[in-house]
Amino acid sequence: MRSMGGLRLGSIAGIEIRADWSLLIIFALITVALATGLFPNWHPRWSIADYWLTALAAAVLFFSSVLVHELSHALVGRERGVQIRRITLFIFGGVAQMENEPPSWRAELAMAIVGPITSLVIGVVCVGLVALMARGLPIDPNNPRPWIAALGPLPSLLLWLGPMNILLALFNIVPGFPLDGGRVLRAMLWGATGSFAVATRWASRAGQGFAWFLMASGFTMLLGLRLPLFGGGFVNGLWLICIGWFLNNAAMLSYQQLLVRRSLEHVPAGRLMQTHFVRADPDMPVATLVDEHVMGSGQRAFPVEAHGRFLGIVSLPDLQKRARNQWEHTAVREIMTPAAALAVLTPQQDALTALELIASRGVSQLPVVQNGELLGLIRREDILKWLSLHTIDQAGTTLAT
Predict the structure, then answer these.
(1) Does the predicted model carry a pTM greater than 0.85?
(2) Rounded distance, CA 350 to CA 354, Å?
């Protein structure tokens, strides 16, 4: 429910595509690893330019395939009633930002399973293209190095990209939430129990269990031991720990977000808004506002009204629009943010919408307005107070705010 940062890459099928700045880290690591490690090992006679250009193309195509993976989720989800407005690529892959939860377990299942299937298809197609391009080249199954060395840049790139997508599909199908396999598990538990909340809790715990397994494996590898499937090495162990830590946090956060959504989506903003606060006259000098109201209260934003009509809000940052020696001769209306530029709520809108708007706008409160009349202010702390008192999971543990 927070605003995603990063670089906007464009939009596809009405879905905004963004790249988190952390993506640059893994992009650089993949490029350097391929250009200085794998490709020189495969092709010792290539030029340095061949290594780096092929590595750069491989990194671009890998994240393009991750984007296609996420787009498959988004497009199938949209067909089944799930609104996806943004996909963000980041250091561990990609995430589709959903506006609402799937309406049924069948919709969840279809949306979850299509991602791994897409990655698997991409991987198989890449491997198949390598086989076609290398047709006629003799290969010794016991010593494939001469066959690999005879490949050009494109088939070599595809020879790396294909297995990487197959591994991506296999990794995502692990039944640990919020991986795709965890969402498949949630869909099946949802269908079996009839409870979306119970299914999310169990799937989240499965995700945390898998995350702790990865972290424990990583620590074992840091001690110098080799493990089946994972192998050994300090760097590989460190990566497993990082991935496990990320998955553990993501699993907990996913369940907490469900609790927050369920606690707020049917609570009207009018129920949580504050109605006792200082209101400013638009013709009041800024100096009077500061001396009589700002300094004497903990209020940080002051609604501006005239004849019962809501005109805007003046907040502490607005005071900086004029020098201190001009406050006596500056009216509040000259520095306020007008109502037309504000995000406002009606008292019937739910508190979840309020929290999402507060997060996306980077503000601390929102005015609640009906027919041009200000009814109250709903603040972030009012919503968090409600959550601390009402957001309780199935085990009876209050959600920390």
Answers:
(1) no
(2) 7
